[in-house]
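Sharing a chain and its predicted structure for anyone who wants a worked example. Both blocks are below, sequence first, tokens second.
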Amino acid sequence: MVILITGASGGFGSKLTEFFIEKNHNLILQNYSREISFEKKDNVLVASCDLTKENEIELLIEKALKKFGKIDAVIHCAGISKNSISWKTSLENWNETLAVNLTAPFIINKLVLPTMKKNQFGRIVHLSSVVSQTGFPGTVAYAASKAGLSGLTKTIAKEVGTNGITVNNLALGYFNTGMIKQVPDVQIDKIISEIPQQSLGDPLAVCELIQYLFSNAGAYITGQTIPVNGGMYAY
């Protein structure tokens, strides 16, 4: 399987990169910069790409298709959060957050869907957030962008349902990787106290869930926003 992972150097991106490398998949890694030992250099394409620029995204997809001939799956890990109260959020920060978190997934999906439709197979997974479902003070742009992924997921899933393509959205709670590293310890303690399982999540659970969605066993799951939050939010 040929898998494109955006934000491959981030918390979840790096965990997913290591996970799928061990499964011997072909990987396209957007903005990967961490140290890792690739056993087979020819099964990995590392490409720098500014996700706020459509022409750079187009070049990334062109390089990937030239190397591997197809893209079977996309995991949208890239994300940014520029925190501030809504009435203090600048238009610049709003636009940049939506560009990376919502517009880039739209553009990437738009570019990879033709090859997926041609092959009658595809898997797309967006990484969203529990904040998109609950709201959280100071995250207006982030929450809005992640909520938008739900609508994107539902619509594309219905458009390509007859083409062997599934599209799903994981609304992640708080895990011991990624943006949680920016949160003060006292606030982390408060967050954990509000999680029924009384712990941060293990990123491996997300890796294995995505692997399931990629498999034949997960082929009938599409158009869903799946909560993965230790019981913090249920609907």
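Comments welcome. The chain has one domain: 2-228.
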